[in-house]
Specification:
Layout: H1 6-10, E1 24-26, E2 39-40, E3 47-50, H2 51-60, E4 65-73, E5 79-89, E6 102-106, E7 109-115, H3 120-123, E8 129-132, E9 135-141, H4 143-150
Helix pairs in contact: 2-4
């Protein structure tokens, strides 16, 4: 994708022709394993998921998102799976209670969010999958998405959840 790859990290919609039809990634030689988890770790913080995870998100989410097909090749450059997707939630959602959250700023710009506290009123209308306005490389999923994922058998792999604070009003 070249110079347009930044769009996937910032939640910007890819236009026709910007995403390769035969998109692929290769397993890292630094990681010798051959099994592919449902949530694929990567150095560029993209949301790369298996088809079951994608289907679970797609079943309940009503927010704007692109699901971009992706093939994963093993260390020997052979196809390991073609059932993966880059999930690109479009835009960001303003749901943080910035006064209760711990946010590190530099020259008025957010550097990172150390503690996420959601605003109950703002979160009420948020989609089930989105990026945070203050941290677009962070992804938030709702309980509805988690409920869909809990139905998957066998249990999805490589997923870690952090429960975000949503204080009572």
């Amino acid at each position: 994708m070249g110079v347009k790859s930044w769009k996937l990290g910032d939640g910007v919609e890819l236009q026709e022709g910007e995403y390769p039809q035969d998109a692929k990634i290769f397993m890292s030689d630094e990681e010798p394993g051959i099994e592919i988890p449902d949530l694929v770790p990567n150095t560029v913080r993209l949301l790369i998921v298996s088809k079951p995870l994608k289907d679970g998100m797609e079943a309940v989410n009503r927010g704007p998102v692109q699901y971009l097909p992706l093939s994963i090749y093993n260390h020997k450059k052979r196809l390991a799976s073609s059932d993966y997707f880059i999930v690109n939630p479009l835009g960001t959602v303003d749901v943080l209670d910035t006064s209760a959250s711990e946010i590190e700023y530099l020259d008025g710009q957010v550097v990172r969010v150390l503690k996420h506290v959601l605003d109950r009123k703002k979160i009420a209308h948020a989609p089930d999958l989105f990026r945070l306005k203050e941290a677009p490389d962070s992804y938030v999923v709702s309980e509805r998405v988690l409920d869909e994922w809990r139905k998957i058998a066998p249990k999805p792999t490589n997923i870690t959840f952090f429960v975000l604070d949503v204080p009572a009003t």
